[in-house]
Design brief:
The protein is α/β, with parallel strands linked by helices and about 375 residues long. The chain is built from ten helices and eleven strands. Helix 5 packs across helix 6.
């Protein structure tokens, strides 16, 4: 088709920086319809064919016809699809030519991919055809124009305003006889719907995180309670055992249990044997430094006894017998069983009439503190 000269529309709004070369003008009803088409289903790709006219200096997009071809790009723009598209063009946009196509891909960046390039090159091969790619969620959109080197992004475009009865009729048919709201109102509603969707997702994520935190805290609390319970049970068992042991010891001290009496007697016997060992060790340590002196005295006494025995054998024999008895009595220390209420000082005073030999008793029994004796203990007295 031969290109015709056309003057630029007067009532326009510039988007971005259009730059040099053939400019792209899209009519406001078309632009609003494409925005609405993208916002109806935010989880699906939406496609449309762009229609209008062009001349040597600009491309004028005056119509958009939805081409619902599914979500599989490999089946897009089949022969059946093109047949339906051309029927729609004849019905609603008679006299307009195909200028390119539109794709809404929510949640994906507005960048060309190899399959998009291949689709455009195969189905829209002419020079200066256009491809309009948008992401309604991020409110991003880019026009691409076919040049000799391939599709190239445009730095900007224009939105212009005119009556455009054909597009109004098509929009009314798509909405069941209703008209279309201005682009600004529609954009605000789409943005509000998007913000509401994102807010709901954030709230769900927050609730999920809170539930996870509460579950973790409850699990930790249950574990702490279990540990505390086990500890309390163990402590209760120990306290019960300790109480029983204290009760048995109390019965032992009061003499109310035969079994405890046997235990007490066994303890007394053990203490007595330990005291005897300590006494023997103390006596051996006390005798050792005076061994030579004792031997010398014994030898002298033996000589005197020998002389006396020669002079008076009977007297010597009697004296020897009495001295042997005294020596034997002195060599064997006396043992005392400590009774309830006894003190070492009281024992010393009762035995020797004073406390002069208290230190000797402590040394003989290996006691560092004269107050530390107990009932049933056997001590050695000098």
């Amino acid at each position: 088709m031969e290109k015709k000269e056309r003057t630029f529309p007067r009532n326009t709004r510039q988007i971005g920086e259009p730059g040099t070369g053939a400019r792209v003008f899209i009519e406001d009803y078309v632009y609003t319809y494409l925005r609405q088409l993208a916002g109806d289903r935010l989880t699906c790709m939406r496609t449309a064919v762009l229609l209008g006219r062009r001349d040597v200096s600009a491309v004028y997009i005056q119509g958009a016809l939805e081409a619902d071809m599914g979500q599989e790009r490999g089946k897009w723009f089949s022969n059946e699809s093109w047949s339906e598209i051309f029927r729609g063009v004849q019905t609603w946009f008679d006299g307009m030519e195909v200028l390119g196509w539109y794709l809404s891909n929510p949640g994906f960046p507005v960048k060309l991919t190899d399959d998009l390039k291949s689709l455009h090159r195969k189905h829209f091969p002419g020079q200066e055809t256009v491809f309009f790619l948008t992401d309604i969620l991020e409110n991003e959109e880019v026009f691409f124009r076919q040049e000799e080197s391939g599709l190239a992004p445009l730095p900007g475009y224009y939105i212009y305003y005119e009556k455009n009865e054909q597009m109004q009729a098509y929009i009314s048919r798509q909405h069941g006889g209703l008209g279309i709201e201005p682009e600004g109102v529609l954009t605000d509603r789409a943005a509000a719907r998007f913000r509401s969707t994102m807010q709901e997702k954030k709230e769900k994520n927050s609730q999920k995180k809170l539930m996870t935190l509460l579950y973790t805290a409850c699990t930790f609390l249950v574990m702490v309670i279990l540990v505390i319970g086990v500890t309390l049970i163990n402590n209760y068992d120990r306290m019960t055992s300790m109480e029983s042991a204290l009760y048995r010891i109390s019965e032992s001290l009061n003499g109310e249990s035969d079994w405890n009496v046997d235990v007490e007697q066994a303890a007394q016997e053990e203490n007595r044997l330990a005291a005897e060992d300590a006494a023997e060790e103390a006596l051996s340590e006390a005798v050792t430094p005076q061994a030579e002196e004792v031997q010398a005295d014994a030898a002298a006494v033996a000589e005197e006894d020998g002389a006396a025995s020669q002079e008076n054998p009977e007297t010597a024999q009697e004296g020897s017998t009495e001295e042997d008895a005294e020596t034997t009595a002195a060599a064997e220390p006396e043992h005392y069983l400590v009774q309830v209420g006894d003190t070492l000082l009281g024992i010393c005073r009762a035995k020797y009439g004073g406390d002069e030999r208290l230190d000797e008793i402590c040394e003989l029994n290996g006691l560092e503190d004269s107050d530390k004796i107990y009932a049933g203990q056997t001590i050695v007295l000098p």
